[in-house]
């Protein structure tokens, strides 16, 4: 590892170490940017954290400003081993599955208070930015310089704190490979930009989406007269339908009203799924909704579903089959 003097930026009066830093947030876009000014990383699916390393303690702060140090003991312990006097690391706490992919459900189980199949010491903090180092506020520096310093601080580490690797690749190709491997998406960062709080175009996120067909088994009315609040969806498991969540986006108000009228015509008092929802209107499962979504939750529900269209089951529409 390089010594402290070799990794520090040019000498300057000591900067005040902030008690909390509002995080830089990535803007969602449809396609990766192009050009040499952009660096790419994997998009981790976990909890965004800032690890504050101070002379006599470590504090782990959530994106919302809560102190969760006691919930991440392995990360706090690893932070004390870093050869720094003071630092703020920005990154994501994750639990990795057998394929090395971050799994939010596994992370939630590891953090749960009840006995779980995943222990807190399985949680890994992938650091992707360095905001403060040994008396110097680095947020004003360009991303490429902050990255260089971060790599030196975390050089060769393989414990509970690790470097989130940059990937030297074309953005479109990296996204294709990431999606093919079941990764949530990728992040693009402009190499010349400082670290600024809030959602900006300095950082971009491009997510992998899935699209499948699900049986419509009912809806929940909207508070808006004549509109629909949520479409209730089901997948097939064996010879029965299983509820997989509700979808409340993807349509205009006019489309929502029309869809509610169509579903009202096939309403039934005998739900096709084992589900009780207050104010829900159940219908015969003769229509299939095309839905775009990010992934599956740990409870077997669709994550971030968005409605794309609807067809009749008779129209050779294959309902998603749960494994």
UniProtKB/TrEMBL annotation:
The keyword Magnesium does not apply. The keyword Lyase does not apply. Residues 116-249 form the ATP-dependent DNA ligase family profile domain. PROSITE patterns: DNA_LIGASE_A3. Its EC number is 6.5.1.1. It catalyses: ATP + (deoxyribonucleotide)n-3'-hydroxyl + 5'-phospho-(deoxyribonucleotide)m = (deoxyribonucleotide)n+m + AMP + diphosphate. It holds the Pfam family DNA_ligase_A_M. SUPFAM superfamilies: DNA ligase/mRNA capping enzyme, catalytic domain, Nucleic acid-binding proteins. Keywords: Ligase, Plasmid. One of its GO terms (molecular function) is ATP binding. GO terms for biological process: DNA recombination; DNA repair. NCBIfam families: NHEJ_ligase_lig (TIGR02779). Belongs to the ATP-dependent DNA ligase family. This is DNA ligase (ATP). The lineage of its organism: Bacteria, Pseudomonadati, Pseudomonadota, Alphaproteobacteria, Hyphomicrobiales.
